[in-house]
Structures are given as C-alpha cells and as structure tokens.
Amino acid sequence: MNDGFEENKRRAATWFRSLRDQIVEAFEGLERDHASGPLTNEPPGAFDVSETTRSSKDGSDAGGGLMSVMRGGRVFEKVGVNVSTVYGTLGEQAQLAMAARKGIPGMHEDPRFWASGISLVAHMQNPHVPAVHMNTRMFWTPHAWWFGGGSDLNPCIEYAEDTAHFHDQQKQHLDPHDGALYPKLKAWADEYFYIPHRHRARGVGGIFMDDRCSGDWEVDFSLTQDIGRAFLPAFVPLVNRRKGQDWTQADKDTQLIHRGLYAEYNLVYDRGTKFGLETGHDADAVLMSLPPLAKWV
After folding, report:
1. Residue 85 DSSP code
2. Which of 75-93 are b and which e, b meaning 16 or more Cβ less than 10 Å from the residue's Cβ?
3. End-to-end CA distance of the chain
4. What's the gap between Cα 222 and its chain centre?
5. Rounded to an integer, what distance in angstroms lies between the CA atom of residue 27 and that of residue 211?
6. Cβ contacts of residue 176 below 8 Å, gap of 6+?
7. CA-based nearest residue to 118, from 293, 290, 289
8. Looking at per-residue confidence, does 276 or 149 come out higher?
9. Residue 270 is inside which H or E element, if any?
C-alpha cells in the first residue's frame, strides 16, 4: 500500500491547505463587506493564526498544522478553520476503534498512520444566519487508505429556502461523479448528525461520507475536492441573505439553546473529536468546534 502514496499524501495535504486559504479569505471578506444591519459599527473581524504541533510519546515530531480562529467579528461570533497533517502510531484505543469500524487486518502489528484534513465550524452573531460545519480528510495506514467528510447546516431559526439552497449546491457538486451519491450521502449525514439522547437531528443536514475507498485514489480524491468546493457557494449566499436582519433577545436565546445541542453532539458522539483527543493532537484545535456561548434550560 505504500508505493506511490507519498505523492498522494502531498497532493491531499496541499489541497486541504489551499481550501483553507480560500475559506479564510472569503470569511474575512464577509466581515469587511458587512455594510448594513446589526454590528456594522464594530470593526471587522480577522483570523488569529497559530501553528499547532504534535509530539510522539518519545518526543519525536508527529506533525501539526494551522489553527485559524476569529472571535467577536461583525458576522462571525466564533469561527475556526483548522488544517493539519499528523502521523505516528495509533494507540490501543484508536486501533480498537479503527478495527471495529473497518476490520483492517495487520493494524495491531503495524499501527502506523498518516492523516490530513481541514475542519471548519462557524458560529454566527446573527441568529438568523445558520451555523455551519465542514470537514474533509484523508487517512492512510500501511494496510488501507480512505477519505471522509462533508458539510452540514445548523440553523437555530430555519428558513426553508436556505436549507434548499445549501442542499442544492451539494447535489450540483456531487451529481457529475454519480447521480446516486447525493441521496446516499444526504441519508448518511441525517444518520450521522443525529443526537440519540435528544431524539432529534442537530441541524438540517447536508452530506457526509466516511471510510471512502473505491480502490481508485484519483476518483475518491476528486470527489473529496468537490465536497470542499461545494462549501463556499452553499454557505456564503446564506450569510449575505441574513446577516443584515434585525434580531430580538428571544432570537438570541433560541440560538444559545440550539448551540447546546451542538456542544453535546461534538463532545459525546463526534468521531473527529474523539480521534483528535485520543491521538494527542492540540486540545484547543480539537475543541475549536465548541460555541463561544451556549445555554441549557
């Protein structure tokens, strides 16, 4: 499985970094261009960027990445766009989780891994603007490789036309690959982003895939890229449509309560959160997805 994969790894990591740069630029543009409505008298937000590092148990380099976080913007209350490339050996818990999901032979004898990806979560100032999550990633071991990721919309006040636009953009980017993909990945997102103890979804869904390995790396990488490319045209028009709307304190309370669902899901169920913490990645970067304020009543 190792032959040729160093170049594939490099290309994947380069793409995730490129997507990160596009999104950061677009989000800072939304801050600068916010000209009418709430908070326009405040200075535009900008990302604070810091490097993250990871060390193996013996102290050797195990990768890292960039953590880009904007707090207290005019449009974004808190948004993080993280990119990382990490490597090393999987611990016992991570090995067991991987084996349970994929049944990969040889994992215990050779637990080396490499993973790269981008992860984004945006919590908005205006309760009428939906929160959003997106990530795409590639994972490699000497025994197997796969891609994963997707994006989903999390409005506290839903607008049917916003939901329809978000899903339509996902479909438009997936259909050229296979007309059956969008309904499959939509259903997967509905299942994955469900909160069992609340008996409800955390948002209005989107698309999601995991363990994607068709056997053709180029095909799967192309699909993963288009999942990333779908994000900005799916989300930015919704921000522009809603960011100037006035809101009430009741609207803000609705938003804070809804954020509680998001926090519960990420801390209890999210695989990425669990993997990041179990493999020793920077805790602040892993928990970047948590909202700045939330409410439980």
Report:
1. E
2. bbbbbbbbbbbbbbebeee
3. 51
4. 18
5. 30
6. 226
7. 289
8. 149
9. none
**Each residue's pLDDT tens digit, 125-165:** 999 999 999 999 999 988 889 999 999 999 999 999 999 99
Three-state secondary structure string covering 36-82: CCCCCCCCCCCCEEEEEEEECCCCCEEEEEEEEEEECCCCEEEEEEE
pLDDT digits (tens, 9 = 90+) for 74-94: 999 999 999 999 998 887 777
The sign of the dihedral angle between the CA atoms of 91, 94, 96, 102 is negative
Measured distance CA(88)–CA(222) in Å, rounded: 26
Q: Which of 210, 240, 222 is nearest to 137 (CA)?
A: 210
Written as six digits, the tokens of 146 are 């796969």
**Distance of CA 134 to CAs 53, 82, 120, Å?**
22, 11, 5
Catalytic residue among 34, 133, 167, 173: 133
CB 75 within 8 A of CB 240: no
Supply the pTM of this predicted model: 0.92
- Kind plus residue range of the DSSP H or E element containing 125: none
Q: Is 128 a catalytic residue?
A: no
DSSP output for 175-197: TTT-TTHHHHHHHHHHHHTEEGG
Q: How many Cα atoms are found within 13 Å in the side-chain-facing hemisphere of 136? A: 23
What is the DSSP track for 194-225?
EEGGGTEESSSEEEEEEEE--S-HHHHHHHHH
Number of helices and strands (H, E) in the chain?
9, 9
- Rounded CA-CA distance 242/132 in Å is 14
Burial (Cβ within 10 Å: 0-12, 13-18, ≥19) of residue 229: middle
In angstroms, what CA-CA distances link 274 with 42, 220, 283?
36, 24, 11
DSSP string, 89-124: E--HHHHHHHHHHH--TTTTT--EEEEEEEEEEEEE
